[in-house]
User: Fold this.
Amino acid sequence: MSNLTVSDLMKTNLRVVHEDDSIRAADWEMTLDEIRHLLVVDVAGKLLGIVSDRDVLRARERGDSDVAISTIMNRDVLFVGPATPASWAVERMLRGKYSALPVVDEAGKPVGIVTSTDFLEIAYRALNGLDTRHIARA
Assistant:
């Protein structure tokens, strides 16, 4: 289990938004896809930030649904590469209280996302004596 990398866990069916997209659009994307995080990219596809469902909820409660994502996105994003050891990623997530880490390639373009739920799946499998090397990714 100690040889797992982020690429073994990450989800690759990414939904991305642009910083000028509305919060309402992001909310709709999250609802449709039943996801909790959207990656914000520039026109070249490079990672600019991340938006969580909690960010969107707070904006919606303030009545800011028609405002641009750029007003609520987190630009100070910890990200990792696909070859990053999973143990390093989960340690950083625990220390920083992050619920998700974008996974980017050498050009800074998102190729995946790893979430606390992915690590819970590993913990569940390990605690039940199941194979942790073959995680189903969606």
User: Anything to note?
Assistant: The beta strands are 16-18, 37-41, 47-52, 100-104, 110-115. Residues 6-127 form a domain with the CBS-domain fold (CATH 3.10.580.10). The first strand starts at residue 16 and ends at 18. The chain is about 35% helix and 20% strand.
